[in-house]
Amino acid sequence: MGARQTMMTITKPGMLTTIQDLGRNGYQKYGVITSGVMDPSASRIANILVGNQEKEATLEITLLGPVIEFSENALISICGGDLSPSIDGRTARLWRPLLVKKGSRLQFGQCKSGCRCYLAVAGGFSVRSVMGSKSTYLRAGIGGVNGRALKSGDRIPIDTPRELSTRLIQHLDRGKTNRTFVESDWSVVSSLYHTNEKDGIVHVIKGRQFNLFSIESQKLLFTEPFEVTSQSDRMGYRLKGPTLALEKPKEMISEAVDFGTIQVPSEGNPIVLLADRQTTGGYPKIGQIATVDLSLLAQTKPGDSLRFIEITHAEAEHLYLKKESNIQLLKNGVLLKCR
Amino acid sequence: MSCDMYPLGDHAVLIELGEGINKETQACVQVIAAFLEGHPPIWMIEYIPAFTTITVFYDPVRVLQSNQKAISPYDYVCAFLAGLLSGLVTGTPSESRVVDIPVCYGGKFGPDLEHVAMINGLTMEEVVRIHSSGGYLVYMIGFAPGFPYVGGMSERIAAPRRESPRLKIPARTVGIAGKQTGIYPIETPGGWQLIGRTPLELFRPGDESPSLLRAGDRIQFIPISEKEYIEWEQDKR
């Protein structure tokens, strides 16, 4: 007989809480969007900190967090935006593993920074994969918990943790059993996640149709601020700023788009495409946000301001590889911590 | 096969095979897609075929891991694809499937059939006959899961989009927008003129291939009565 399966009970759902992993890859050729986390770095780091595989699904929690109860001891971590998490009234710090004791209650408060945070639980959520992914795709009603956002009363079973998670639990559990939760005395260095020195600065590679825009528009993209409007969601952020226009009108043929593509419809306000983007689009692409800055983007909320600075494709590629090697270092670091 | 390549961000290459929508360019896209399907490189995440382009998404770290000499993942992937394309022959791809799609035209399923007939000076029966006698080619799947971009509709039944889009179009509705016809796989908002509905599921999330249709397929619409439509629906259960 094994131990009883850990259950996570949602007593309050929060504004928009969904199960997401790194996306439903391989099906875009059938028009199936990838979905997946808005902030892949935060979700991957959260998983690494509890000994999961990076690609394991996490809970994506948006602005107003849920209230969650754990039926058994669980190893968790919370990464991304700071939505003031607390466990049984005591502040739970981000970016580190936390061993939560049976019966404790995790809740969230004020949104202090960012917009979304990711809750990883050692073992991962035991929900069915659809087309190779646990990601929730709301419009098609697939993935996650019955293809929908979580609601009160949902009970999510947790799978058996891997050996690495068990070692992390032992590492944390040294004789402090009376506390409602135990946190590690180490955490992720913030420079791993915050790659930019200043908030709101986003690196952009020129898009395929950049040169079709008027000289004025090309300049405005990199000099003026753009505000994230309230018409923004997981599919895309609609921005407001100077109007951007093509030099002369051109009929476009639909082609692939990607996470971070900046497209400009004819009315001139750019849209940044995000996790729930369509697979293809027919608007001209003025730019593409460097992958390393997608976290920053995912953590901006309506009303926030963005500034784009140009980066070459080679520089974006270099930053990408550097960040990946830093994430690899973090994985090795976690292994060392629980030797 | 001649083409141009462009980066789409820092982990995808877009291959452009032509500048206009036509069957020849579409066939090139199909040949490359078929090759990538049969021989997926270890670093490839996926690919998206479109009218005149095919975009290959890759994992830059895996590119470097699997090719010790590569310095830039993008340069490596471009060189790989250029080599691949030089070896592929433009021609008609192996065989085109023909997919029959039964459609119950008009009535509650096709509230705009009368409008489409009226603006084209036709009877509703004529619109149905023209729509169901055309030979259609699926150029690409996009916009929504399983949604086919279809070419080949007669301009005699063309109709502009509605001025204000409907908030909800039921799944499996067949519509016309301008010179295009298409089928909505899932409930979506949209401005198309709705002329009928098929009992066939175009999006099948449980299947290995979740889209009934694939780029390169040929479509034949078959008119069915409301009674046949209902029987079909019952058979599905």
TrEMBL record, chain B:
Q: Which residues form a coiled coil?
A: none
Sorted alphabetically, which keywords does the UniProt record give?
ATP-binding, Hydrolase, Nucleotide-binding
**GO-annotated molecular function:** 5-oxoprolinase (ATP-hydrolyzing) activity; ATP binding
Task: Report if keyword ATP-binding is assigned.
Answer: yes
State the SUPFAM superfamilies in the record: Cyclophilin-like, PH0987 N-terminal domain-like
Provide the top EC class.
Answer: hydrolase
Record InterPro entries = CT_C_D, Cyclophilin-like_dom_sf, PxpB
Q: Which residues form the Carboxyltransferase domain?
A: 3-213
- Nucleotide-binding recorded as keyword: yes
Enzyme Commission code:
3.5.2.9
Q: State what protein this is by name.
A: 5-oxoprolinase subunit PxpB
| Naturally occurring in which organism (per UniProt) | Peribacillus cavernae
Tell me the organism's taxonomic lineage: Bacteria, Bacillati, Bacillota, Bacilli, Bacillales
Gene name of this polypeptide: pxpB
